[in-house]
Design brief:
- With 91 residues, this protein is mainly α.
- It has one domain.
- 84% of the residues lie in helices and 0% in strands.
- The chain is built from five helices and no strands.
- Helix 1 runs antiparallel to helix 4.
- The chain is elongated, with a radius of gyration of 23 Å.
């Protein structure tokens, strides 16, 4: 069973936020008082980690999304085909 690339990227991105948050929360007691500052720092660290190390999973997820979107639009329906279908249905 193949895991969807979007799920892989989402989990890795979430871990890039949660792990620094947990480390700061557990090892720096002053940051427990300023939880909002801890969340901001964890978000900045998580964004940096994802920009540096998650380029491959992001590319895979983007390619998968593009492939799914392009296959859903392969059947172009023109106005003439719609009119012909309606005429055939009424006849």
């Amino acid at each position: 069973m193949k895991i969807p690339p979007l799920l892989v990227y989402s989990v890795l991105r979430l871990l890039a936020f949660v792990v620094p948050l947990a480390i700061m929360w557990l090892f720096f007691p002053i940051l427990r008082e300023y939880w909002w500052l801890t969340a901001i720092f964890a978000a900045l660290i998580g964004a940096s980690i994802s920009f540096l190390f998650l380029r491959g999973p992001l590319t895979d997820a983007s390619a998968d999304i593009h492939a799914r979107r392009s296959t859903s639009r392969t059947r172009p329906n023109t106005a003439a085909e719609d009119a012909a279908a309606e005429d055939a249905a009424t006849d």
